[in-house]
Design goal:
The complex is a heterodimer. By secondary structure, chain A is mainly alpha-helical. In chain A, 72% of the residues lie in helices and 3% in strands. Chain A has 14 helices and 3 strands. In chain A, a hairpin with a 4-residue loop joins strand 2 (98-103) and strand 3. In chain A, helix 12 (262-295) packs antiparallel against helix 13. The longest helix of chain A has 34 residues, at 262-295. Chain A starts with a helix and ends in a 7-residue tail after the last helix. By secondary structure, chain B is of the alpha+beta class. Chain B has a domain at 92-154. The longest helix of chain B is centred in the first third of the chain and has 44 residues, at 2-45. The relative contact order of chain B is 0.11. The chains are: A mainly alpha, B alpha+beta. Chains A and B meet through helix 7, helix 10, helix 11, helix 12 and helix 13 of A and helix 1 and helix 2 of B.
Chain lengths: 366, 637
């Protein structure tokens, strides 16, 4: 008995059980929806279960690493990511007109995925170092750290990922205390530069935005996704059509129903009640993350947890927003629910860091 | 120092940070509220509207699978074709109790346990709304039986399906390969190459052989049909149709008559034969014995047949002509002889006395000739005719391994020829650099001795040997060996020739070539090692016998065929071309575990040449087997 207790203690020492419970419930919902979305394909559900297990192990490992160690990883990870991004620009594989993958012999990797974690880490580390005197030029330096990879990803071109990564870096800047005047200035500048952005955009990107305003303009092309997912959500009504009974899903009208558009499957089959439950669950997880962030003891841990938390919120909002037709279509999965190993691992890696922040002894008492 | 500053500022920092965090949290709440408003709009205010749209969502797009291109030999004999047959298909979502219904169905139509097993596998992999086959290839009687009982089985239908068939089965399976069901790996590959959309509706893809390497030509372009369906997904009528474009037909360089003669000449022995046209590199015959019935793989091979093929000691799935690597034995000698002349290490007039063995200066070890006591005085001509080993031992010592490697690699031994089917083995033509790389050891003079007679580290495929023989036959022209002669547009009938591709030309002195080629002709004449096979031929016939060692014979021991396990006996090799003055065919033959090239491999070459050059059939009465060739010709083109 004592042995078992010992092992249990060893396993759960650095795990935040509240956060873990929320994550597990959301992932279980994901598996249930996936079963329906794939028409009862046990192999794919099994694959996703394996993805989840792998991601959980990685989360556990990260949670067990004290933050000093993670702090040390920031710079090498960022440099590695930057080198890989430059390699992609030089020798990457071209796929559908975009250069995003790098073939490293054994497998292909998408370096922008690594950057999703590396950027907030690097910027938090940067601010942690210069904590004594945060001057305008420190923010400027941080902005350059952020812009280098963002511009490289923008060039691939991968507008969606570039914006999401830019956001995760911006959260660090914001939480580190970037002055309101500059924020307002930036927002104004961004608004002013929209026409310029429009002119350098690729045709397919412009089309996605145009389609947002009027999906019926192009019902079989770019608008098809939005129309079909809106029909799925809308026809679900208050109580939904029931598990495995969504006609949009089962008759294959919905595109990418196990990955980016899985929310439409959920919404069609479980209705507004299901949506309410799902959003509340997400809010619980977010709430816990915010609590962890607020109690973090050092500048570094605060900034990294804050950025991870806000990025998580951004993913949820952008995915559900695009599926329900209020945002343009960008390739963003629904965290913890969508099919796919990479995004699952990236998400849980982030949660692992949050758990480490929460469970390791605080170094400086306040 | 830093700690001190941090502690001092900390409360203010923390307060500012928490303020910002609170602002962010508020912002997140606003965004979530925005989503909720959108849900309220879609699912409550507009619910009626979207419900109607979902009900009316009735136009689905169904892919139309193109016919796969046919494959035939150079004379129009069909080697891969399609035929229509009827299948019984089940839509699981339309059936209440699947198990009972299928049991009931089994009472009127035979459903084997294998059928059930395959169906259950498909059931797991597919959506419940998909139509899945439970029985393939229904007979007329079965169709009639089901038709009369149809009312009892809603959700089960008879559908027409197109199947692939390989009429020649074992005989050309190693060339044609096969198609089989598309698996996850294929899907990923299709996705990466951007061709996935063209495989919507396709169930099969080329896995090996011509079916794989010419997949793009054979598959065709998938068409589409816009179908109006009811809310349950049943199709009501077709709204528009883009017809599929059938795949292109392939006309191979193979001469199936020749292939058949070679097959018969092998009888039940294991081995390989590759015959090339020395004027363009066309592959005339490509035999790997034993073959396998490639029809078994189309629908997914069952476990029993798979075990039978995969565990057989004869290894029928191994493409010996393409992937089998063997020491070339004495068939290596003509290339050594050419190296000696071209590099000036020997003259045709030079002769040596052969005591039956060779020793390196200062070393006691004896490298023995195959003939005890030796061949007496031997010059280059005689060394090839009687296949004297000692001559080459001493020659090798004078040339050195790197000269041998550099010269003979020009004939393509030890590297892939680039033939138009995948999976080719590269074999090995050793060099001192290779040994250092591979074994971290320097090259010893003794290593060169065994290489000189095609043993030692030497490894070649039958295809490579045929390629090298072709280069001698045509005086130095390396044509790319290829199996596809023409590609025919199956709709317009337009034929596009695949031109011969000259990879490179060797600049060999005609005088030197003549010396070697004359000797090769004498190999098949009285006194030569293949004299028996060459007897009374109506054309001049050049060749070289070889024996490829399977196990090493220890110093001081003697090879005794009768005492050795059959599978450890030597392989017989033979390379040849004819007619010697203007070669029309060049080939390499390997017969596994049957001893010397002269006695078993050379007679096969003779039969193949007799058929190809004179139209003579093998001596046993096989006229009835060969007859259909003529009837078949031009049937399908």
């Amino acid at each position: 008995m004592i042995e078992v207790r010992k092992i249990w203690h060893y396993l759960t020492r650095y795990v935040d059980s509240f956060l873990l419970a929320g994550i597990l419930i959301l992932m279980s919902i994901g598996l249930i929806v996936l079963y329906s979305a794939t028409g009862g394909n046990v192999t794919r559900v099994g694959n996703q279960a394996i993805n989840i297990l792998v991601a959980l192990v990685i989360m556990w490992l990260v949670a067990n690493i004290p933050l000093q160690q993670i702090l040390r990883l920031a710079f090498p990870m960022y440099m590695l990511g930057l080198i890989l991004l430059i390699s992609v620009a030089l020798f990457g594989e071209i796929n559908n007109g975009a250069r995003r993958w790098l073939n490293i012999g054994v497998t292909r990797i998408q370096p922008s995925e690594l950057m999703k974690i590396a950027i907030p880490l690097m910027m938090a580390w940067y601010f942690d170092k210069y904590e004594i005197a945060l001057r305008l030029r420190d923010y400027f330096g941080a902005t350059i750290l952020l812009l280098l990879p963002v511009l490289l990803i923008l060039r691939q071109p991968d507008l969606g990922t570039a914006l999401l990564i830019a956001a995760s870096g911006f959260y660090v800047l914001f939480l580190a205390g970037l002055s309101w005047r500059i924020i307002v200035g930036l927002v104004t500048a961004a608004a002013a530069s929209l026409p310029i952005l429009w002119s350098v955009m690729h045709d397919y990107q412009r089309q996605r935005i145009m389609t947002l305003f009027d999906p019926t303009q192009d019902p079989l092309g770019a608008g098809y996704h939005t129309i079909q997912s809106s029909i799925a959500i809308g026809s679900g009504g208050v109580v939904g059509k029931g598990w495995q009974n969504g006609t949009q899903t089962q008759l294959d009208f919905l595109p990418e129903q196990s990955t980016d558009f899985i929310f439409a499957v959920f919404s069609e089959e479980f209705g507004l009640i299901g949506n309410t439950v799902l959003l509340l669950l997400y809010l619980l997880v977010i709430g816990r993350c915010i609590a962890i962030t607020a109690n973090a003891s050092t500048q570094f841990t605060r900034l990294i947890s804050g950025s991870i938390t806000l990025t998580f919120c951004t993913y949820i909002f952008v995915n559900i927003g695009m599926v329900s037709g209020i945002l343009p279509i960008v390739g963003v999965p629904l965290p913890l629910i969508s099919y796919g190993g990479t995004s699952m691992v990236t998400m849980l890696l982030g949660f692992g860091i949050l758990m480490s922040v929460q469970t390791h002894p605080k170094l400086i008492k306040t | 120092m830093k700690q001190h500053v941090e502690l001092r500022n900390h409360p203010i920092e923390l307060y500012k940070f928490r303020m910002r965090l609170a602002i962010s949290a508020g912002f997140v709440l606003v965004l979530f509220l925005l989503l909720y408003v959108r849900f309220y709009y879609l699912q409550i205010i507009q619910q009626e509207h979207y419900h109607t749209l979902a009900e009316a969502n009735r136009i689905s797009i169904a892919p139309l699978v193109p016919y796969r291109g046919l494959i035939s030999d150079r004379n129009g004999r069909v080697l891969a074709q399609n035929y229509s047959a009827y299948t019984l298909e089940v839509v699981p979502s339309k059936i209440q109790d699947l198990e009972t219904t299928l049991n009931e169905l089994a009472t009127i139509i035979e459903i084997t346990p294998a059928d059930r097993q395959r169906f259950n596998k498909l059931l797991k992999e597919n959506k419940r709304f998909k139509s899945l086959p439970i029985r393939n290839r229904l007979t007329d009687v079965e169709i009639a039986t089901f038709a009369t009982n149809r009312y009892r089985f809603p959700g089960i239908e008879i559908k027409a399906q197109v199947y692939r068939q390989y009429p020649e089965k074992e005989m050309v399976s190693h060339v044609i390969g096969y198609i089989s069901r598309i698996n996850d790996q294929d899907l990923e590959q299709l996705e990466n190459s951007g061709e996935l959309h063209n495989y919507r509706g396709s169930h099969h893809i080329g896995k090996i052989g011509i079916e794989q390497s010419y997949e793009k030509q054979l598959h065709g372009v998938t068409g589409f049909e816009e179908v109006e369906t009811d809310a349950a997904g049943r199709s009501i009528r077709v709204l528009s149709r883009t017809p599929p474009t059938p795949g292109n037909n392939l006309i191979l360089t193979l001469d199936i008559g020749l292939q058949e003669v070679a097959e018969i000449a092998f009888s039940d022995r294991r081995g390989a034969l590759v015959a090339l046209d020395p004027n363009n590199g066309e592959v005339l015959a490509f035999v790997s014995k034993p073959g396998y019935d490639n029809n078994l793989f189309i629908g997914g091979i069952d476990q029993e047949n798979w075990n039978l093929l995969n565990n057989s000691i004869d290894r029928p799935l191994n493409n010996r002509a393409l992937r089998g690597v063997y020491p070339p034995g004495s068939t290596f000698k003509p290339f050594m002889a050419l190296a000696a002349l071209e590099l000036g290490k020997r003259t045709p007039e030079y002769s040596m006395s052969d005591p039956g063995y060779f020793s390196l200066p200062g070393v006691s070890r004896r490298y023995r000739d195959w003939k005890p006591g030796g061949h007496g005085r031997v010059d280059l001509h005689k060394s090839l005719v009687v296949s004297c080993d000692t001559y080459y031992y001493s020659l090798a010592n004078d040339l050195g391994i790197d000269n041998i490697h550099n010269f003979i690699s020009q004939f393509g031994l030890g590297s892939k020829t680039g033939i138009d089917i995948g999976g080719e083995a590269s074999g090995l033509l050793p060099s001192s650099a290779w040994k250092m790389r591979q074994h971290k050891q320097k090259w010893y003079a003794g290593d060169t001795i065994s290489v000189s007679i095609g043993q030692g580290y030497n490894l070649t495929t039958p295809l490579q040997l045929a390629f090298a023989t072709m280069i001698i036959a045509n005086n130095g022209k390396a044509y790319l060996p290829h199996l596809v002669k023409q590609i025919q547009n199956s709709q317009t009938g337009e034929v596009q020739d695949i031109p011969a591709k000259l990879l490179y030309s060797l600049n060999l002195k005609p005088k030197n070539l003549e010396v070697v080629k004359n000797a090769l002709v004498d190999v098949t004449r009285p006194g030569g090692t293949a004299a028996k096979a060459g007897a009374n031929a109506d054309y001049t016939f050049a060749g070289k016998t070889g024996t490829s060692q399977v196990i090493a014979i220890k110093q001081g021991e003697r090879y005794n065929e009768k005492l050795i396990n059959e599978r450890h006996r030597d392989h017989a090799m033979f390379i040849a071309y004819a007619p010697a003055e203007d070669p029309k065919i060049a080939l390499a033959i390997l017969v596994e575990n049957t001893g010397t090239g002269g006695s078993t491999a050379a007679p096969i070459a003779r039969q193949v040449f007799d058929y190809f050059l004179l139209g003579k059939l093998p001596e046993i009465d096989l006229a009835h087997l060969i007859e259909p060739i003529k009837n078949h010709a031009h049937d399908h083109l």
